[in-house]
Each structure stands twice: as structure tokens, then as C-alpha cells.
Amino acid sequence: MTEQRSPVHEIVHALRRALADLEAAVEIADVERWAFAIHATLSAAGREFHNHDHVIDFARFGDPIEVIAALYHDAVYIQVDQGPPATMAAEMNRALAHDGDGWRVLPAAAATEVTADVLAVFGRRPGDHVTATSGLNELASALVAAQHLERALDRGRRIALAACIEQTIPFRADPVTPLRDRLVSLGLRGTQLDDTLARAVRVGN
């Protein structure tokens, strides 16, 4: 008989398994903290589709980076949650500030490699004004993921994770070509470039 896990335990299990498959050096307490933060955001009132059931289903497939991207890609959903999720507000506030009908990218986001790479993947710079219709939720989710996993994943894997989340931005005619150009600008070449792009396209589809 298959063990039935609660949604929070499904998320903990999926994140722990993915990081173990990557042989990431990480404490289980950190994995649980990150997973609980994800679960809390996905359980917010108003989450009808982009909730933990959707994310758990999405995370059943793919390689470890794709699984982690699936877990994080809907973590922030500003217009549904009516603001940043409480469990991820600290990470968001290090990189973004509320500004009118959107959020502004802070200079601090470009000051460290971890978040600067996420900005580069998304084609964003300090001072940019980002709204829900121009990738705010995906950018914020990727920034949170990068900060959570700063010590668990190396730079190449963090870039791949951000690329996967970037490709979940909807309603774009050609999201792949600009992403490829940005990955090249970050120094990805050859097999690493091809693998990262292919992984991101799979998640985006």
C-alpha cells in the first residue's frame, strides 16, 4: 500500500530527494525550512490553481533541477496573495521594493553573484520596474530560490534553476532565443548551454 503524505511532507520529500540526487551539502533543517516556506505560500487564501497540488504534480517529473524549479516557480504570486508571501518577504525585500503598480529592482540585487545572476537570466537590471504581467512573480520566485539555495547549489545549477523558472513566464512569442543569448552572456557554452536551455524549455512547456 502506497503511503499517503500530506502536501507539506510531499514538498519536503521532493526537495530533499532532488538535493540528495545532486549530492548537495545541506542540512535537513534547512530543507525543511525552505519546504515549509514553499508550502505556506502555496496554501494562501485565493490559491485556486497555483497551489501545492499543482506544484506537487509538476514536481513529479524531470531531473533534480527541474523538480526544484517546479517547487519554487509559483512561490510568489503577488496579485493573488495581495502582496509578498510572509515566509519569503525577507528574501524579496533584499532585491525588490514595492513601487506603484509593480516592484522595482534594487541595486542590492546586483551586488552579489547569487542574485545578480538571476537578474541576468531574466534580463533585468537595478531600477527596472516589473509588474505581474512582465514576469514579476517568476523573477521574485527565482530570487527567493537562489537565496535559499545559495550554498546548496553551485553557480551553474543556480543559473539553470533560474532559467527554468524564467521559462514559466507566460504569453511570449519566442521566450527561448532571448534566454539563450542571456545564458551565453553569463558564460555558458557548449554542452552546459545546451543542457541548461533544454531543461528550461521542458519546464516552460
**Radius of gyration, CA atoms, in whole angstroms:** 16 Å
Strands, count: 3
Stretches with pLDDT under 50, minimum 5 residues: none
Overall shape? globular
Number of helices: 11
Strand order of the largest sheet: 1-2-3
Span of the ends, CA to CA: 33 Å
Largest sheet: 3 strands, antiparallel
Structure overview:
This protein is mainly α. Helix content is 57%, strand content 5%. It has helices spanning 7-21, 28-42, 52-58, 64-72, 78-81, 89-95, 113-122, 136-148, 155-166, 176-185, 190-204; strands spanning 96-99, 102-105, 129-130. A hairpin with a 2-residue loop joins strand 1 (96-99) and strand 2 (102-105). Helix 4 packs across helix 9 (155-166). The longest helix has 15 residues, at 7-21. The model has no long low-confidence stretch (mean pLDDT 91).
Defining key terms:
205 residues; mainly alpha; 3-stranded antiparallel beta sheet
Ordered list of secondary-structure elements with their pairings:
Blueprint: H1 7-21, H2 28-42, H3 52-58, H4 64-72, H5 78-81, H6 89-95, E1 96-99, E2 102-105, H7 113-122, E3 129-130, H8 136-148, H9 155-166, H10 176-185, H11 190-204
Antiparallel strand pairs: 1-2, 2-3
Quick structural overview:
By secondary structure, this protein is mainly α. The protein is built from eleven helices and three strands.
